[in-house]
Write a structure and sequence with these properties.
Distance between the termini: 48 Å
CATH topology of the largest domain: Aminoglycoside 3'-phosphotransferase, Chain: A, domain 2
InterPro entries: Aminoglycoside_PTrfase, Kinase-like_dom_sf
Strand content: 15-25%
Number of domains: 2
Protein name: Aminoglycoside phosphotransferase domain-containing protein
Order of helices and strands: HHEEEHEEHHHHEEEEHHHHH
Strand order of the largest sheet: 1-2-3-5-4
Oligomer: single chain
Pfam family, one: APH
Number of strands: 9
CATH superfamily of the largest domain: Aminoglycoside phosphotransferase (APH), C-terminal lobe
CATH class of the largest domain: Alpha Beta
Helix content: 40-55%
């Protein structure tokens, strides 16, 4: 929906009520307001737009400024099952349930001021506008975020009850892989022999990827036997809001709770790393060292919170979640290579695929070892 279309549908009565809630007053009146789009243009299938609505409220002659975030969630009949990784109503229910009001590891979620059901079936979430620092992350930021994620997960590994809502996905990665296969099947894979002439190593990647595909059922079964934890599943830079003193502030804010799940220890971390590399936040040239930073920091967070289990468990969860992203990345690589095998994007995707295949070898070794321990 366009900015103009959204503005024309916003009720000033609703805005005045939200302004009073933000300012913690029952007095005054709305003076003026504006609505502007924020965030990336390429959004989730079930998000129609995210907007910052700001205005002024007059209380006994004094002018008070306020801001709120409006997130428009689309009803989607193709994603209307809680078993779907992208169930369209999940984030609405997460706020509605009160689940996000108290989170471990000093994490915060924005306050939800109001939930408005629209005549077209969409839902408007009115959320707190969280102040944060916008900057390119450094290694220390990733180490901090990975350690906080470990601390968060440790709370559930140590006995905090897992959320029991029916709308929380219990097989998130399994559902995501099924959707990726549907996407891949929409394209006819190019002839590997033709592309490999100008792309060293491609045949090896494809051969190892074939092994990964045959291993998916066993890997998913092993992931689903890992110790369970409440997981965000979209934990990466844009959804982790750090204050300007982010390394010292102990309560980062997490936004975008659309993918929340009950998943295996380490799985959320593997997706975090995979997203950061795929989006170019972490250079693919240095990602091998960065992967070890993620894992060691995560384990530091687990131990700091009191979990001293087998470190091979979160390592397996992380590496498997990262390696299984090849189900999405390798078909994308083939498509890019067919278009231009020498492009920077093709080279980046090739490096990522090679690293995923390296991770896959360790995943299989860990799976066999852990299988003996009957995880």
């Amino acid at each position: 929906m366009s900015e103009t279309g959204v503005s024309s549908q916003i009720s000033e009565t609703r805005l005045e009520a939200i302004a009073k809630k933000i300012l913690q007053t029952d007095d005054g009146f709305l003076s003026q307001w504006v609505c502007e789009p924020i965030g990336p243009k390429n959004r989730n299938f079930v998000t129609d737009g995210v907007y910052r609505v700001s205005g002024k409220h007059i209380v006994r002659g004094a002018v008070h400024a306020w801001t709120a975030i409006l997130k428009i969630v689309l009803a989607d009949p193709n994603r209307d099952d809680p078993a779907h990784y992208n169930y369209w109503r999940r984030e609405v229910l997460a706020y509605e349930s009160g689940l996000l009001k108290s989170l471990p590891a000093s994490f915060r979620a924005p306050e939800c001021y109001a939930i408005d059901e629209q005549d077209d079936g969409s839902v408007w979430l009115w959320l707190e506008d969280m102040p944060h620092e916008s900057k390119r992350w450094e290694r220390e930021d990733y180490a901090f975020a990975a350690a906080k994620l470990g601390e968060f997960h440790a709370a559930y590994l140590l006995g905090q009850p897992l959320p029991d809502f029916s709308w929380i996905n219990r097989h998130w990665l399994r559902s995501w892989i099924n959707e990726c296969k549907r996407y891949r099947d929409a394209y006819q894979e190019p002839m590997v022999q033709h592309i490999s002439v100008s792309c060293n190593g491609l045949v090896s990647v494809i051969d190892r990827f074939a092994m990964v595909e045959t291993s998916i059922p066993e890997w998913l079964a092993a992931l689903e036997r890992l110790p369970r934890t409440f997981s965000h599943q979209d934990y990466y830079e844009s959804n982790i809001l750090l204050t300007p003193d982010g390394l010292h502030e102990r309560s980062p804010t997490l936004i975008d709770w659309q993918f929340v799940s009950i998943s295996g220890v380490g799985e959320d971390l593997g997706r975090f790393f995979g997203l950061s590399v795929s989006r170019g936040q972490i250079p693919s040239e240095s990602c091998r060292d960065d992967l070890e930073l993620f894992i060691s920091s995560y384990i530091t967070g687990l131990k700091g919170a009191g979990w001293y289990g087998d470190e091979a468990l979160p390592r397996f969860g992380c590496l498997a979640a990262f390696a299984l992203r090849a189900v999405w990345e390798v078909p994308k690589l083939l498509k890019k290579l067919e278009q231009d095998p020498k492009s920077p994007e093709s080279r980046k995707l090739m490096r990522i695929a090679e690293m995923q295949m390296e991770a896959a070898e360790e995943v299989e070794a860990l799976r066999r070892r852990l299988m003996l321990k009957k995880i």
